[in-house]
Specification:
Layout (H helix, E strand, L loop, with lengths): L12 H15 L6 E2 L6 E2 L7 H26 L1
Antiparallel strand pairs: 1-2
Length: 77
């Protein structure tokens, strides 16, 4: 990834777990995890996640849910 990535997409849960753990433990990165594709965003955290990572996951899920509601409202007219 060139530059500073804001979002990293992974093909499956195992790849996401490996990437998140690597970034967290080797690069001291903070991460937020949600699963897309369900009717509602699914918050994905680990027992080892910090409070900041858990709160970031909640915040991202709220933003995704709001964007979906706004999109549905716009379609409805």
């Amino acid at each position: 990834v060139a530059g500073r990535a804001n979002v990293l997409l992974v093909p499956d849960l195992e790849a996401g777990n490996m990437l998140a753990k690597s970034l967290t433990f080797l690069a001291n990165a903070d991460a937020a995890g949600i699963v897309l594709g369900a009717r509602v965003p699914i918050i994905l955290t680990s027992r080892a996640d910090s409070v900041l990572a858990r709160m970031a996951s909640c915040a991202v899920a709220v933003l995704v849910a709001k964007a979906r509601r706004d999109e549905e409202a716009a379609k409805a007219g």
